[in-house]
Amino acid sequence: MQRFVPSTLSPKSWPFSLEFLPQTAYMVGGAVRDAMLGRTREYLDLDFVLPSHAVKVARKIAAYYKAGFVLLDSERQIARVVFPHATADFAQQEGDSLEIDLHRRDFTVNAIAYNPHTQEIIDPLQGYVDIERRILRMVSPANLEDDPLRLLRGYRQACQLGFTIEPATQTAIRTLAPHINKVAEERVRAELGYMLLESQGTVWLRSAWEDGLLTPFFKSATKESFIQLAAVDTAASVLAETWQQLEVDLRKYVRSTLKTSLLGVAKLACLVNPEPEAAEVELQELTYSRAEIKAVVTALRLFPQLKALPMSWREQYLLFQEAGFVFPAIVVLVVAHGIMVEAIAPLISRYLNPDDLVAHPMALVSGKELIIALNIPASPQIGKLLTEIAVAQIEGKISTAAEAIEFARHLIDQTRQK
């Protein structure tokens, strides 16, 4: 089938030469769909189907370009080649023909193939029509059941593409929803991550929950949870109007190797059990990392303190010490739960001011220096002394290392006298 071929499909943009692909190789999936939508990516994610020798071709390309090679599925003959700015997957064709392979895919918009040698578009399921209509339509219920992650992936793709889900497809998803229990938790977590990143994901998370896809993973979630989820988006937008840096910080990932942002942390806090210990168990079951779990649990544990304004300098100092980089997520949660922005503004200003001693204290002495100067053993007492020194510094009672040591000595003497 000949159809207009977007220039973004051109092999000139690939990280390897077209010469490595046989004439019977086709590009399929998201790259073809996105090209037809006019969507471009800095990082290319390419998928190819070959009737034979898919892994052999992938190995040859990886070896020639000194790129990374990963055998994803030896039985189904699927391999990945990883370049600095692109990933290319090579899969053995399912069935005796390309059309059979396309008929085994999830949604019609992902069942379009492009032959880079002939510039031919193969679209047996009218996926291009659905792209123009901006709808996700299943190829068949059986295909969704074959890999139940596709049930949730439909909501994620609708979110990312700005599509709607065709009614019969959504009905089928609701019917098949119990099969989501068969999916490994880490695969579910990856799909959730995309929808937690942006505000448009909230409506799709709610829809997925209402259709039974999230209830096995967020057992404590209620309708109120999703009202709060939307309130978090609103709060983030309101706060960004005054503090642009806060918006930047909310988009930062918990760690560079993880894909959960601080805004995502605030949203997860709405979906899990409000009790930190119970929330930790839920997040462990979803295979979130220790860093992500700690961030959510910290937000749940501390945001009630911010609701109890005003706070003394000591309370503020301790809050900032416990919150650390998670503070923006806590602020968003507090505003989402009805605290006026004006009430929390002083704390935000402290957080954003690197010279503020309450939020960003500069230690006058170290624990080791106290041990040596006061001739005391290493113990939890050192941490308590450092806290009291920091509070005294904030209150203007001391300002030098010598004064800090004398202040600590006085505290020890007072304790001994009791």
User: Which value, in Å, is the CA radius of gyration?
Assistant: 27 Å
Q: Tell me the overall shape.
A: elongated
How many domains would you count in the coordinates? 4
The main sheet orders its strands as 3-4-5-2-1-6-7
Mean pLDDT: 92
- What is the first-to-last residue Cα distance? 90 Å
Low-confidence stretches: none
**Residues in helices, as a percent range:** 40-55%
Class per helix and strand makeup: alpha+beta
The total beta strand count reads 9
- SSE succession: EHEHEEEHEEHEHHEHHHHHHHHHHHHHH
Q: Tell me about the biggest sheet?
A: 7 strands, mixed
| Strand residues, percent | 5-15%
Q: How many DSSP H or I helices?
A: 20
Notes on the structure:
The protein is of the alpha+beta class. The protein has 4 domains: 120 residues, Beta Polymerase, domain 2 (2-Layer Sandwich), CATH 3.30.460.10; 82 residues, Orthogonal Bundle (Hydrophobic Seed Protein); 143 residues; 51 residues, no CATH class. Helix content is 53%, strand content 9%. Helix 12 packs across helix 14, helix 13 packs antiparallel against helix 14 and helix 14 crosses helix 16. The model has no long low-confidence stretch (mean pLDDT 92).
Structural topology:
Layout lengths: L25 E3 L1 H8 L6 E7 L3 H12 L2 E6 L4 E6 L2 E7 L5 H5 L10 E3 L4 E3 L4 H7 L1 E2 L4 H6 L2 H13 L2 E2 L1 H10 L8 H13 L3 H10 L12 H20 L1 H7 L11 H10 L4 H10 L4 H18 L5 H11 L3 H10 L4 H12 L14 H8 L5 H15 L6 H17 L1
Parallel strand pairs: 2-5, 8-9
Antiparallel strand pairs: 1-2, 1-6, 3-4, 4-5, 6-7
Helix pairs in contact: 6-8, 6-9, 8-9, 9-10, 10-11, 10-12, 10-16, 12-14, 12-16, 13-14, 14-16, 15-19, 16-17, 19-20
